[in-house]
Amino acid sequence: MTDQKQAAAALATKPHQRLRLSAMRGEHVGILSVITGLIVWQIFSDYVVANPLFLASPMQVLSALVSLASSGELWPHLGTSALEFALGYAIASILGIAIGLLIATSSFWKSWLQPWISGLYATPTIALGPLFILWLGIGIWSKVLVVVLLVIFAVIINTEAGIRSTSERYLEMMRSFGATRSQLFLKVSLPSATPFILAGLKLGIGRGLIGVVVAELFGSRLGLGRMVGASADSFNMPELFAAVTILAVSGIAMTMGFAKLEARLVPWTKD
User: Fold this and answer.
1) Which residue of 45, 59, 93, 193 lies most exposed, with the fewest beta carbons within 10 A?
2) Mean pLDDT for the chain?
3) Does residue 186 form part of some domain?
4) Residue 236 is part of a domain; what is its CATH number?
């Protein structure tokens, strides 16, 4: 009996070991991909373009980052952009999930809100940036509004799709056991929609970062977008690429964080 229990335990742990090994291989491949890209970038900037006025090399970008950080010039820009993104992303996530759940569970609210969602989603929010600055000034709230409008629709659409994709077979099975409406939502619909909600939140990361930069380009005192604009005006490619690199690394880090969160919240979506 002891041998049988050990064999059963070994079989049970094999899927988890395979998942861990697969995740480790994926991380190694991702790191190798980044290293390869940096090497190609360095070679291209040294031997193909060979002019820092048009393209900064990774080493020049690293040098600019160190210089900006050590002088203290980087931190006010980084802090301002981070605050604008965090506020806008948090507001859009909360409102987006709430509105998505509302229109997915109520035909009245879907009919009432759908024209507004479709119309605003098709509206070029970036082009309205100057108008938001006119309304709210060049402080952080005009940028927060741009981030909210760029992020919220991805969250709404994915949340609604997730709720509506819930298997009717599972719902019927729960109803046959006498489940209430709230139990159906909490035990079946919401877990089923969670991967879709997380996908919407991940899509919102890139859209939110773009919104911050573009809104700051229209008018701001501080921020990475302001830094990009000033660097472009003075043809300072190392500092321009330094700001872009910070944004890219931030996007990668947050997306990886959501991937780990997804693995914990919805492990059944993994093979």
Assistant:
1) 59
2) 82
3) yes
4) 1.10.3720.10
- List all residues 6 or more positions away from 237 whose beta carbon is below 8 Å from its beta carbon: 52, 53, 54, 55, 56, 60, 231
Q: Is residue 55 part of a domain?
A: no
13, 79: one domain: no
Q: Judge if 171 and 102 occupy the same domain.
A: yes
Residues 113 and 187 in one domain: yes
Spatial CB neighbours of 165, under 8 Å, sequence gap ≥ 6: 192, 193, 196
Instruction: Evaluate whether residue 121 is within a structural domain.
Output: yes
Contact at 8 Å (CB) between 88 and 146? Answer: yes
In a domain, 56, yes or no: no
Cα(209)–Cα(228) distance, integer angstroms: 13
pLDDT at 11: 43
Distances (CA, A) of 145 to 88, 92, 103, 263: 7, 9, 22, 31
Q: Which residues contact 266 (CB under 8 A, 6 or more apart)?
A: 191, 194, 195, 198
Residue 103 CB burial class (10 angstroms; 0-12, 13-18, ≥19): buried
Query: In angstroms, rounded to a whole number, what is the distance separating the alpha carbons of residues 155 and 162?
Result: 10
- Domain extent for 8: 1-50
Considering the domain architecture, whether residues 15 and 127 belong to the same structural domain is answered as no
Query: Is residue 42 located within the same domain as residue 116?
Result: no
- Cα–Cα distance measured from residue 191 to residue 96, given in angstroms and rounded to the nearest whole number: 17
Percent of the chain with pLDDT over 90: 24
Q: Which residue has the tokens 């993104």?
A: 85
C-alpha of 177 from chain center? 39
Task: Read off the pLDDT of residues 123-154 as tens digits, 9 standing for 90 and up.
Answer: 887 778 788 888 888 888 989 999 999 999 99
pLDDT tens-digit readout, 48-72: 776 777 788 888 889 989 998 999 8
